[in-house]
Structure formats: C-alpha cells, structure tokens
Amino acid sequence: MSLEKNNQYLLEKKRKEMDFLHHFHLLGYDLLDLSLLEEFEWDRLSEDDLKMMKSRHTWQTGHSLLSLRSDWTDAIVRYRKKYKLKTDKIAYSGPVFPMDKEKMQFGMEIFTEDIGKQIDTMKELIQYIKENMALSLNVAVISHYSLLKKLLSENERQEPEIMRYLDERNLDGLTERLGDSHPVVRLMSQPVPEQLDYAKAHYPDLRKPVEEIKRWQDQLQKNSIPVVYCDLFSIPPQSYYKGIFLQFYTDHAVEPVVTGGQYSSPTRAFGMAINLSSLSLMKNIERGKFL
C-alpha cells in the first residue's frame, strides 16, 4: 500500500469510528473507553478466567497476570463490577486481540431486564449497519443459552466428552453416551426447522426459552433478515451468558459480522458488537465500502 493510500485508510478508519460513537451518543448512549491491558490477580481468577486464558495473549509481571483485551463485553463486565458503573446504555469502539487475530469492535450494551428495550437496541444497531455501512445482513442464527441447563444435568455438563460431542453436533456420539431416549438426542434427531416446535410440544420446561426465541425470531424477520434459523445446542463461552444469543452473517461469510446476547453484569444486560478485521476493513475502504 502506498503512503497516500495508507493515509486515506487511516483517516477513513478513524472517521467511521467517530461516526459510530457520535451516532449512538445522539441516541442516548454513554461512551466508554477502556485500557487495552487487563490485569488479573492469580488468587482471584475465576473458572471463567481460567477457561478464557487459552484464547488470550497473556504475560506475567510481578504478582500480576496481564492480558490484551480479547473481548469488550468481558472487559465491561469487569469494569462495572469493580467501579459500580451507573449507566443504562453504553457504546464503545476499539480493538480486541483474541488469539492469533486482531479485530476492531463497535458495539453497545444496555443494562435492563426489559426485553422490549433489548430488542429496540438490536434494531438500532441493525438500522445503523444498513444505513451507514451499506452492509446486507443475510443470515441470523439465534440460540438460547438456558436450554442446556434444562436439557442436561449438572454432571452431564461437566463431562468433557459430552460437551465436545455437543459442540460438534455429533449425534452418534451423544446417542452412545446419553442413550436414544435422552432429550438432547431426541431433539437433535428432529429436522432443524422442526426442532423449535418439537421442543415446545414435548418438553414443558423449555416452553419459556422457546417462546423467547420465537419473539426475537419474529423481530429479526420484521427487520428484513432473509434467513433466520435456530441453534438449540450452543454452549455459552462464559457463565455470565444467560439467554438469547445472536449471530449475523453476510453472504458467503464464514465468521459472523455481528454477535451479541443477554448476560448478567451483575444485573441483566444485553449487548451486540460489530466485528471488523483489519484486513477486511482495509480492503473494503479501498473499494469505497465500510466493510
């Protein structure tokens, strides 16, 4: 890349970041900027912390463990707990460094139990993407993280082999371990388009999360997402994810462009993030597009 192209890329990148923050500030979001470095204390590492260290860039200094920020939601959860942050809505932008990758994330969080307000937040982000990024979200995948707690016992959820089979959607392996009468096996045996109705009809304990999925699914369809399908067997990456989880894809995309869902922080919350790789951002800015 020539120096002039590099200059234009950097200026456009910063402008897009400012556009995003300004847009959501005008919608009533408070803006938050956090340090790229996160500090952990060895004797206070939670089970979630230990699990996530495998995907973080970490090093030790003195008695502390330092890490590059790998996820904004996780950083905001920590910040809110530590400083008892009082705000209803937050917008942010900045890089994250999951292992072997660098991404720019633009996102927002809303701290409320009101699902209607959470859905409004999702709509605001979808509208921004369509109008300001010239980006078509063609596929949405919707999950509900409370389902596994109702489908699997605590002991079953502690079995690495069962969880690996579940992550792989390995029906044969799950049948061998759990038996063909197990709810997970029976549900996974159904055609994907029929699994949601099957769950509601055969398992009363699943009725509430299924109805929540249908509510969000309806809103996604009303917002002109062409393909919306459900994944009833998603495993939450951290324990604070409690409910609906969403992933949005463009045509031919392997990784989701937008992700988000319901979590606790320490109260109920909902957040979504636009994930931009530096390489894709550079190529598409050169073509006159944001993404």
Spatial extent as radius of gyration: 20 Å
CATH structural architecture of the largest domain: 2-Layer Sandwich
CATH topology of the largest domain: BirA Bifunctional Protein, domain 2
Q: Give the terminus-to-terminus CA distance.
A: 18 Å
Number of domain modules? 2
| Tally of DSSP β-strands | 11
Task: Let me know the largest β-sheet.
Answer: 8 strands, mixed
Shape: globular
Strand content: 15-25%
- In the sheet with the most strands, the strands line up as 1-5-6-11-10-9-7-8
Share in helix: 40-55%
Fourth-tier CATH superfamily name of the largest domain: Bira Bifunctional Protein, Domain 2
Would you identify the regions where 5 or more consecutive residues have pLDDT less than 50?
A: none
Organism: Alkalibacterium subtropicum
GO molecular function, one term: catalytic activity, acting on a protein
Keywords: Glycosyltransferase, Transferase
InterPro entries: aa-tRNA-synth_II/BPL/LPL, HisRS-like_core
Note down, in words, how this protein is organized.
It comes from Alkalibacterium subtropicum. This protein has 291 residues and is of the alpha+beta class. It folds into two domains: 253 residues, Bira Bifunctional Protein, Domain 2 (BirA Bifunctional Protein, domain 2, 2-Layer Sandwich); 31 residues, no CATH class. It has twelve helices and eleven strands. Helix 1 packs across helix 12. The protein is globular, with a radius of gyration of 20 Å. The model has no long low-confidence stretch (mean pLDDT 87).
